[in-house]
Amino acid sequence: MGIQIQVLFTKLSFVKLVFVKSGATSSNEVETVYGIISSSQSSSNMKQLLKSSKVFLSNDLIDKVLKRVRFGHANPLQTFEFFNYTGNRKGFYHSAFSLDTMLYILGRSRMFDKIWDVLDDVRHKDRTIITSRTVMVVLARVAKVCSVRQTVESFRRFRRVVSEYDTDCFNALLRALCQEKSMTDARNVYHSLKHSFRPNLQTFNILLSGWKSSDEAEGFFEEMKLMGVKPDIVSYNCLIDVYCKAREIDKAYKVVEKMREEDIMPDVFTHTSIIGGLGLVGQPDKARDVLKEMKEDGCYPDVAAYNAVIRNFCIAKRLGEAYGLMDEMASKGLNPNATTYNLLFRVFYWSNDLTSSWNLYGRMMKMECLPNTQSCMFLIRLFKRHERVEMALVLWSDMVEKGFGSYMLVSDVLFDLLCDLGKLVEAERCFLQMVEKGQKPSNVSFRRICVLMELANKQDSLQNLTQKMAMFGTVINPCNNSVSVDVSTLTHSPHN
Which of 26, 189, 212, 430 is the most buried (most CB within 10 A)? Predict the structure, then answer.
């Protein structure tokens, strides 16, 4: 009996040890595995490096690594090998999050055959992790590059793999079509399949949220009520938003009154839509007053509501009020986000105001608010227009250090600027920094840098960059005779 108790205690201790280990994934472990996936030359090499690293490949770690791959755009094929390798271990089951993230990565790379291979494998091993969210992830990627017919065919293929082929899956299809195709396509598919799936409140809210035409939105709103589906606050907010974007403010206010009659109190989203609508009809001051009126309905402005008011003043070129609202946000404990700053960057870009853009960027970084890709593009294009290399390099250095923005989009403009001004040392350094991050420079930028290096007789640097690009499967050498180079694309390009 004592031996049995000791064995049981040992087993429980082991389970506890594994649980603690699997829940204690560090960022260093994630970066280690991410680096192995990014740098591995083959599947066997990757497996060997993973074993040598002695990192415990728990569900938590795999979830975080795949998330890192998704946002870091690492090699999808090596990531697929990693997913299969970890999933084939005896007694191991991938989480639903890992599955959906892997499918997203494959879909982004248009590896649709591999998506169905994964789903077939998972179907036999653990069908329960294939959910309506999985359907949405896959169909969104399919709809992005394939026809409506192919998207619907992919939806029908899910019948044999998903655990429950129901209205939630149907809603996932409609959401993908609303986001990636036209609302007309979504409407047609809805009408062709609605008899096979019983539409629910979410079905109509998905369709209502996509319409830009108030007539179409009104039609679906009526059909919703005819089918006995009672509108909720999301339904009403969608209708109000359509009216506001169509500049039909009076109709929007009538819907708000109807909501109150049904004891549905307007929320922050309701008021934010009204603010946007008032801005479109040229009433930014009245829109600002809505911020105060919100309190009467028991809700308080959030960052999105303030951004809507700030957008109105930016459109009206009243930047003093826009900055004042940013200060007001901060006084209420609401930190301006990347969207807030982007509204101002847009105005400064189109008015060619380099000084204000640079000062705003300094303020943003001081507040530890990282720019989004759109803000980065406004900045880098403005720096290129004014040929301000030092500013461009500060932005790039911050991107590399803090991990914000799109390396691909920003680097194309940056390399153009550096090549225009003959800054080959800086171009090479930025190129290598990008590669170290697992990001592939565009072939256009690569060609231009290489040709200029050839002209400058920098053979060692040229060979180094060519070897780095070969890591991404790029084997072209733009400087040998076997490749034709369009010289017109390498000459000084006009400023944006």
Answer: 430
pLDDT band at 3 (very low <50, low <70, confident <90, very high): very low
- Return the half-sphere exposure (C-beta side, CA atoms, 13 A cut-off) of residue 368: 0
**Residue whose entry in the numeric block shows the structure tokens 């990531």:** 79
CB 307 within 8 A of CB 268: no
Question: What is the torsional sign of CA 290, 291, 295, 300?
Answer: positive
The pLDDT assigned to 295 comes to 84
pLDDT band at 477 (very low <50, low <70, confident <90, very high): low
User: 3-class SS at 240?
Assistant: helix
Note the helical H segments in 23-129.
27-39, 43-53, 59-72, 76-87, 96-108, 112-125
Of 238-247, 387-396, 474-483, the range with the lowest mean pLDDT is 474-483
Alpha-carbon gap, residue 391 to 60, rounded angstroms: 40
Give the model's pLDDT for residue 42: 86
CB 360 within 8 A of CB 348: yes
In whole angstroms, give the CA distance from residue 347 to residue 306. Answer: 17
Percent of the chain having pLDDT more than 70? 90
pLDDT band for 293, please (50, 70, 90 cuts). confident
> What's the pTM value of the predicted model, to 2 decimals?
0.70
Alpha carbon distances (Å) from 166 to 13, 107, 194, 428, 460: 42, 23, 11, 54, 60
Round to whole Å and give the CA distance between 347 and 341: 10
For 476, list phi and psi in degrees, rounded to 5.
Answer: -70, 145
Neighbours of 47 (CB within 10 A): 15
Residue among 413, 440, 418 nearest 496 (CA)? 413
Q: Inform me whether the pLDDT recorded for 86 exceeds 60.
A: yes
From CA 3, how far away is CA 84, in angstroms rounded? Answer: 39
CB 402 within 8 A of CB 369: no
Q: Do residues 134 and 162 make contact, with C-beta atoms less than 8 angstroms apart? A: yes
> Per-residue pLDDT averaged across 308-318, rounded?
94
Q: What is the band of 7 on the pLDDT scale with cuts at 50, 70, 90? A: very low
Tracing tokens 């002209």 back to the chain, one arrives at 455
Alpha-helical (H) ranges within 111-248 are 112-125, 132-145, 148-157, 167-180, 183-193, 201-210, 214-226, 233-245
One-letter amino acid identity for 463? Q
**Angle CA 415–420–422, to nearest 5:** 90
